[in-house]
Design a protein that fits this description.
Helices cover 40% and strands 17% of the residues. The protein is α+β, with helices and mostly antiparallel strands. Strands 1, 2, 3 and 4 form a four-stranded antiparallel β-sheet that branches. β2 and β3 form a beta hairpin. α1 packs antiparallel against α2 and α1 runs antiparallel to α4. The longest helix has 19 residues.
Length: 113
């Protein structure tokens, strides 16, 4: 798996790009150690949903002013609230924000390793 710093840099970049891309999909795929063809993570919310590390779950996303916030947390927390800690990211689209949040969750896992 990629280092904490690299995963955070990927997340930071995903927060500012205007649209998903195959290069971003492949970078994410490689960063979390997956093999085979990279799904369309940055443009398909179903593909982005598969990015979380084991033991994490998605929380309901929200949008404001044309941007989307996608949060996730360790599984087993209360209902659908935003307890801390949680990992989330703003992005221009739901898939981009989900990808960024997932990279932040993976960074937390990498930091513990």
């Amino acid at each position: 798996m990629t280092s904490f710093d690299r995963l955070i840099r990927i997340a930071d970049r995903l927060a500012v790009v205007k649209a998903g891309s195959r290069i971003a999909d492949e970078t994410i795929h490689q960063a979390i150690g997956r093999t085979g063809p990279a799904p369309f993570y940055t443009t398909d919310k179903a593909a982005a949903r598969t990015l979380l590390p084991v033991g994490f779950e998605w929380i309901t996303a929200t949008s404001v002013g044309g941007r989307v916030y996608a949060p996730c947390r360790r599984s087993g927390r209360d209902a659908d609230t935003l307890p801390f800690p949680h990992h989330g990211q703003w992005g221009r689209t739901l898939p981009l924000s989900m990808c960024g949040a997932a990279m932040r969750a993976w960074a937390k896992v990498a930091k513990r390793a």
